[in-house]
Amino acid sequence: MPTSPSSASNTKLSELRDDLRDINQQLFKTFLERRVVVAQIQQQKNRTGAFGSFDSQRELEFFQELKPVLGGLIVQELLAFSLLMEGQAGAPSNYPAWSEGVHLLEAPSHNEHRLNPILLRVLHPEAFATLKLTPHFGFLRSI
Questions:
Q1: What is each CA distance from 77 to 73, 103, 111, 115, in whole angstroms?
Q2: Domain shared by 22 and 69, yes or no
């Protein structure tokens, strides 16, 4: 018996939702796996002091390597990744809280300003150039 257009579309919608559920489960599992690896890296670094988990040169290399993939993401997706990095690396004590504007003279006015500024520099250099950086983070212009 043929299905009506609405039941065919409902079946397709149900399949798409199942696909999305599976992707979300994989994504969350990957978040948890990433957290474990980040903790192991932090143990190996064994750095102390403010922002002991932050290595600007390493992040520049990391983002440059991922530029082909990251370049296809919208700002909200980039912000989600930037927040993931912050949270797992121990912001605000062990890692800069970029999303809170720790690097800016003024509070972040939009999502681009809340991104990791090195990520912003790699993907959107024109937006990075407009950031009003604090003296403490002025070195980001020259890395």
A1: 6, 21, 10, 10
A2: no
- Distances from the Cα of 38 to the Cαs of 8, 66, 89, 120, 121, in angstroms? 45, 17, 7, 22, 23
The residue whose two tokens read 């190996």 is 44
Distance CA 83, CA 81 (A): 5
> In which residue are the tokens 């992040």 written?
59
CA 140 to chain centre: 18
pTM listed for this prediction: 0.86
Which domain does 41 fall in, by range?
Answer: 1-46
Task: Please tell me the total count of domains within the chain.
Answer: 2
Summarised one tens digit per residue, pLDDT across range 36-82 is 999 898 888 776 666 878 999 999 999 999 999 999 999 999 999 99
